[in-house]
Amino acid sequence: MSNLRDVLIKPYITEKTTAMMADNKYTFIVPLTANKIEIRQAVEQIFKVKVLDVSTIRVLGKTKRMGKHLGKRSDFKKAIVKLAPGERIEFFEGV
């Protein structure tokens, strides 16, 4: 990726990911082409935190039906980032 701000598309906030924040794990949606090294560098530089581990999950889009027409949602990639003890991302506070 040419720009590290292009690596993190948006935060992924659900009930499960909110519970994971207690364990210092934060979840982001990233491009399908992003790798763990790029994700680590982007989080460390943008949020000024120390990253211990990065896990990635590729989520396949669901097939949806509208009457007799079939469609498909887009595939996406999730990145779960574990921060060092004592580190926090202020962006997620108050969610």
From TrEMBL:
The keyword RNA-binding applies. Pfam families: Ribosomal_L23. Gene3D superfamilies: 3.30.70.330. SUPFAM superfamilies: Ribosomal proteins S24e, L23 and L15e (SSF54189). Keywords: Ribonucleoprotein, Ribosomal protein, RNA-binding, rRNA-binding. The keyword Ribonucleoprotein applies. One of its GO terms (molecular function) is rRNA binding. Signal peptide: none annotated. GO terms for cellular component: ribonucleoprotein complex; ribosome. One of its GO terms (biological process) is translation. One of the early assembly proteins it binds 23S rRNA. One of the proteins that surrounds the polypeptide exit tunnel on the outside of the ribosome. Forms the main docking site for trigger factor binding to the ribosome. Belongs to the universal ribosomal protein uL23 family. Part of the 50S ribosomal subunit. Contacts protein L29, and trigger factor when it is bound to the ribosome. This is Large ribosomal subunit protein uL23. It comes from Sporomusa malonica. The lineage of its organism: Bacteria, Bacillati, Bacillota, Negativicutes, Selenomonadales. The gene is rplW.
